[in-house]
Amino acid sequence: MSGLSRGLSRRLVLGSAVALAACEGGAKSQPALAPPLLKSLKDSAAFPVGTCVQVSHLDQPLWVQLARAQCSQLTPEWEMKMEYILQPDGTYRFDRPDRIAAFAKANGQRLYCTTLVWYAQKPDAFVNLDESRVSFASAFDNYITTVVGRYRGQAVGWDVVNEAVAEDGEGWRQSLWADKLGDFDHMRRAFDLAKAADPEAVLFINDYNLESLPKKFDTFQRLVERLLKAGAPVGGLGCQSHLAADLPGGAMTRTLQALARFGLPIHVSELDVSLSRVERRFAPRAELERGQAALYAETAEAFAGLPEAQRFALTLWGLRDKDSWLRGENAADAPAPFNDDGWPKEAAHALADGLSGGLYGNAKPRR
Q1: Fewer CB near the last or first residue (10 Å), C or N of the chain?
Q2: CA 169, CA 217: separation in Å to the nearest integer?
Q3: Which residues pair with 272 in a beta bridge?
């Protein structure tokens, strides 16, 4: 029997036992949050395992229970980005970021923050800035200094520069920040400012599709080299890892191994595995689900195989399917390790096994 078959068999046995217990409890008995993983994600790993969070999740008892059980790190999904914090009149609002930070602290979870500089954001406060009163550079400096400084001593790290590389790999993305402060200089400036505001936080440059677009990955690595050569305090490399379920096996392993050459901490920062963003759109759903489980396992195993000092964290971009941003793109997608009700899918078991070097590590299923 293959490793995958053994894994499926023991899941079925465990699931059947839970279902039988629920039936024996009578019609009024309430099912548990989920049949348990053989070991929780955070307990399976020798490094932090995280998820993204929105304030709305904190009012959902089942999400709170699941996040406490599975995760040791939290990343605000969007409520610590400029789109939320910076108001059109230039004032700041911190109510939701503060609540997420307080929740993490109360539950003994690390707080990771994203993001300071993102090409996609052009807030009104900067677009309409009266530069006869305050310069663009001063407003930029003040934003980063204020926001990073507010969470000094609590945030373990920041995505300082997010998605800077053009999708086709032809250089860097155009942005308001590049236009006003220089295509390279605005990135260097952001790292210097963040370092001054919180010297202990690990500062990351973060991007996506590094595992699937070789030219983009090459350009990303050259940008990292240039930043380091210029003396920018880049402290880590973020690999978002928004994967499609039919990504060829080995791609994530090669990507993480290539990033490891820099000797910096690595963050798998936004991991999910889409069943809808696949090239093989007519592949059977069950086959795609097996591919999804295999990719979760491979990513976990490859990350766990990095040198200890380089394993910053592995963060899921949504614990449950219904929490995922990909649902807004395709309502039929199911990219997370847990289903809408918080029950572990085969992907969750594969992830836990990969984190702990279990049966997926001994028999890698292939698509």
Answers
A1: N
A2: 7
A3: 242
